[in-house]
Amino acid sequence: MTLVRVAFISDQGKVRRVNEDAGGIFLHPHGYYLVVVADGMGGHSAGDVASTMAVEKMQDLWLNVPELSRPIDAEKWLLSSIEKINTEIYEHAEQHKDYEGMGTTIVVAICTQEFITLGNVGDSRGYIFFEDRIRQITEDHSFVNALVQSGEISKEDAEHHPKKNLLLKSLGSKGQIKPNIYTITIEDRNIILLCSDGLTNKIDERLMTEIVMSDVSSLDQRARHLVDVANEHGGEDNITIALVEFDLIVESEGVE
Fold first, then answer.
1. Rounded CA gap, 91 and 248, in Å?
2. pLDDT tens digits, residue range 107-119?
3. Domains and CATH numbers, the chain
4. Which parts of the sequence belong to the PPM-type phosphatase domain (predicted)?
5. Model pLDDT, residue 252
6. Which among 78, 66, 80, 73 is positioned nearest to 114, based on CA atoms?
7. Is 80 exceeded by the pLDDT of residue 26?
8. E strand or H helix at 171, and its extent?
9. pTM of the predicted structure, to 2 decimals
10. What is the average per-residue pLDDT within 225-230?
11. Where are the alpha helices (DSSP H) in 8-100?
């Protein structure tokens, strides 16, 4: 049996007039959790519309999903759902001139009792924490990450590159979007973090790990602490965070 704790927070930050991030944590009747973070972009209110559409449509699809007992089932569902939502956002923008060119990143996690399946488009990220260690699960679909992957610049150089925010993929694009899909096995005390770049642009992995793995505060308090530190470091962007913590409970047999 697995005990799951969740926390979610979305903050406008200290500079932006509108929060163009969206997200949520949604419980399925079968006991699975769907965790979503989206970071919208576009003129006027288009970014807000795109990210909200992505989250709401993902939630609608989630409520009708059949049982996902195997990772392959979760992967197929997540792939098809992200592709479907990409098409719907693109068509909505085509039909409404005010929303022309709008788009959004998305990172999604399906959390079951045995495994976690993640999908992402753009540079909103998914991390896993275990025993004071951090691992980024997702790969950014960004210009600078492509440079890192090709060996042209280092990961450290990428943090300060002038084109750091240039995306190569986002929801709302014409044609297939081809999200990245990953599945990992749950272990005791794993914590999953999904977040927009309003967090990762302001907090390095060392400090992130220190806050997330703190055992002196609740999961909600840790999420709030992450947001507060990002705002203390400038808060120029919206900040959205979802945390999911897993405790594996071993049921002991009774003693006669």
1. 43
2. 999 999 899 999 9
3. 16-190 (3.60.40.10)
4. 5-246
5. 47
6. 73
7. yes
8. none
9. 0.94
10. 98
11. 46-63, 71-95
